[in-house]
Amino acid sequence: MLTLVGRLDASHTADLDRRLREMYDAGAVVLTVDLSAVTYVSSSVLRALLLANRRQQQRGGSVRLLHVAPRIMRILTMCGFDRILDVTPAQGTERTH
Q: Which residue segment(s) compose the domain that 9 sits in?
């Protein structure tokens, strides 16, 4: 599992992509990403997650986002990512659709 923390903007994209590729290269079918401590995600980070999901789908897998805070969930929902990725809201919150 990959745990991300804080504000994730364009400066974090290359590192995130590298870490997701390492998990892929290690043979992971489902890439699980804990977002419980994330306060912001930029469009470049969302793109990295989407590309990772496409790679995973080619091997029959997916990207799973866990413990997504309401603020981040709203962003994912607004962009339609909640319909593409396996997203689990933070405990005590509900999906918005």
A: 2-89
